[in-house]
Amino acid sequence: MRFSGIFAISTLIAAFTISSCGNIEPSTSKGSLDFCPKPQEITLAPEGSADFIISHKTVISVSAQDKEFSDAAMHLSDFCLQATNIRPKIVNKAVKSNAFVIERSKEKIPEGGYRLKIDDKKVILSASSFTGAMNGIHSIFKMLPLVLPKGSFAALPACEINDFPAFEYRAFMLDCGRHFFDIQTIKHVIDIISIHNLNYFHWHLTEDQGWRAEIKKYPLLTEIGSHRAGSPKLGGAPGEHDGIPVSGYYTQEQMREVVAYAAKKGITVIPEVDLPGHMQAALASYPVLGCTEGPYEVACRYGVLDDVLCAGKDNTLQFVKDVLDELMDIFPSKYIHLGGDECPKVRWEKCPHCQKKIKELGLKAQGKKTAEELLQSWFMDRAQEFLSDRGREMIVWNDVLVDWSNTVVGAPSKSSVIAGWMRPVSSEIAAKEGYRAILCPVGNLYFSNWELNRKKGEDYIRSTYDLDVSPASLSEEEKKNIIGVEACIWAERVSHPDSLLWRLLPRLSVLSELQWSNPETKDYQEFLPRLRRMTELYDKEGWIWNENAAQAWE
Question: pTM for the whole thing?
Fold first, then answer.
């Protein structure tokens, strides 16, 4: 049984024959403009206009001097082969007809945006950047017919598209700390998110349950920290685990390989080192980094653990700097994610090093902001300084600023970017406080949510689609502080690629709408046919997994 999700998967074929001057042309299968994310502006050609037909004579014209756009042309050629069994030849000259033309726009097009003009002679793709060109190519790929009867040619509908993203930051996060996914799976995820016009892959690399990034100055992080004895046993007693070892880490060479692979798809990789909480794998490797100095072990249970990095020791900050220096040598992203979430203060409250640091800094409780909460803000600001020295910016979870009661409990630097995971209002509060903010609330955008995945009917989709990405509670100036939208898959119960894809699709289409399309034009009934066709595309590409098989890995 193929993935049923919500919709029955059906095939839309528009095969027809064109007659011209009495000559019978080969039959064609027409593509569709029903895809996600919805372009900002589509102008259909007058009724009766001829479409563009991809034949064995079709070529792709691009300037030989433009290396980036020449690379984009290769992707278009690959997509055409994949969808039509025809690989257009790439030429470096002007062509009058039967051609895709990829050109760098002389007019400024918003970053990530593109323009398409399709008629019976040419498909002209204009963009100001490689990412924009790739997004236009992704739209061409999604336009192509899903089924091509033997002997027929693919036709693209005549139209003009002016398209650009609603948000600069369009991300998907994968947790590889709880369970390890190999490089091929990571690349496959990048392939899938890229055709949805996302531009960031947020790679969660460290957790209490496993440290996954090779750091050469601290080899024990992977020698010890990348292995655990087991995972929580479903239905077992508290603390009981299944005894099935989990291990794995990415070498620096492998991480560079992923960064380079993603860049060719228009995706930037953002690494995350979650600190000062969720650090038990690091503490098991280097106990001196903790307040009690152990003994610690790589966690075999999930949840929020009391043992965290000691914020009062100078060697802890040196450890953070060393780790970040090595990661910044690998990841060129302007953003580096430093977590900051779920950091209990019970050890800090009793730790002489932390209390000494609080006294040295003159930190005093301010209403709901305890001295220990302010110590975390100070600690995160020091980490941010390490990033700023190399021209990078810090993203942190909203815990650093606001808690579950919607109370402002921290005071991180205003240059921090706040990822609001608790509720939509977490991001709204951050925006009101003058921070750049990302929407990623658990109730809407945590695709790993087990109960939500088991739901049938429209709840499965609408929980994501109904997220308000332009809250009325914000002023027009405050809305500018919302820089993007991100979905997350946490891997407590995701241990296999089948299970991962089952969670990712088809809601990735919904995510792409929230990130890209104009929120003022949202129309759920208009969206459904486009989502239905996207599920057909997933099925064609073999990305949709049997639900029962996926659940077998839970």
Answer: 0.93
